[in-house]
Specification:
The complex is a heterodimer of chains A (320) and B (136). Helices cover 15% and strands 34% of the residues of chain A. Chain A has 320 residues and is of the alpha+beta class. In chain A, the strands form two sheets. Chain A has an 18-stranded mixed beta sheet that branches. In chain A, strands 18-19 form a two-stranded antiparallel sheet. Chain B has 136 residues and is an all-alpha fold. The chains are: A alpha+beta (320), B mainly alpha (136).
Amino acid sequence: MSMTNKPLLSISLLVLTLGLSTFASAQSASIGVNAAVKGDVTVTTVDQIAKQAVVKEEVYLGQMINSKKVSSLQILLKDKTVFTVGPECELTIDKFVYDPNKANNSMVANVSKGMFRFMSGNISNSGADAVSINTPTSSMGIRGTMVEGLVGANAIQIAQGAGIIPAGTALDATGATLFVLRGPGQNTTGMNRKGEITVTSGDHTVIVKGSNRAVFVPSAGAAPIVFSLSPIAFQNFSQNLRTTPTGPATYGRFEIDSHFKAKAQPGSASAQGGNGAAGAGGASASGGIGASTIVFGLGAIGGIGAVIANNNNDEEPSSP
Amino acid sequence: MKKRNKQRTGPHRLLRASHISFLAALAMSVSPSATEYNGPAITFEQIYANPDDQALNLNYARQQAAIGDYLHAAASLERMLYSQPNWDSARLFYALCLYHLDDLQAATRELDILQTRPLTPSQRGLLNDYRKMVAK
């Protein structure tokens, strides 16, 4: 190589280095992996490159995930969180800070439309505000939880079907949100923390505990309405987020481990839904919630709903 | 003759081979009359690297359920049912995890589905026991 070519080589290396660093920053950090894909699910990178989601492909911060009808994607995040993107959903994970050796981890996801399911991982152990799922009208904080959500006109339909929307309530057809806490419920028998969600809309906040309890936010800033999800509404979620056999049994049959049989015996503490840990329970088995909270009744309630009693087992409104 | 050979090296053969190897792995790792999980410890990192490995997910679910971590057992089983919705044994296992997570509505849904599916006598007994517990 002649001496005159050296500056050219240096410039080329500089350009290449700059190009690589730009690529690296645009690519962002891997935060999870596609664990299961059904149908037509598109992943759009921060560089606006869209492609079909594929199992085992890494998920990056800031990617937008869009699913079509009868399509869904299960994402496994590095902290063990499982995020299921249901049909016609749009999801972005905008913040993911996770170091298993640290306690101040956090995650923020945005769901602008559609249905999703979320199963907590380790980040939710960092505190009640460590995991947030935002929608156009509300924000949900999650603690040790299986939760499902729906954003848009279908959320309004379910709320209307339940008869919980007061007359004259303003409804945001694109941003109305329904959250449903699935568990672990108050009678969970394992080592998992009892589930709890905190839903905030404007100045209003409600804390919900107990399986099948739902929160509907009709529009931004409106008081959240708490109610129990009806079997029909549950079926709606099931059709979109759960599986159903499609034919005869074809896969390897196995017997269920005997500890389940033992728990099904009459008189067994866990069979009766006791509150002890069934195995290595212990440290993370309970929620450490304050002893005195205000309880809502089982009927539908809004920000001014009936306050019943002092109990450590249910829900708390904390509007200002 | 040539055509037949070509078929044997095609994607169907690969799919069949992977299906057979999975069943073989399953047979080795889960005996038909399993009592408790006593296989090698499975780490989350292994699951993360192989989220579609059915045998690995099943054993991870068994391992986690044995220590009372029904949440992550259920998550693994959901993944398995996603790709194999006709896997009745996995669905029964999933239903029991949901019961212990106190999501009775979801547990009932899975138990209802299994009511008309072919189960072993032991599985049928477990199904009936848990149905009674849910109804209490």
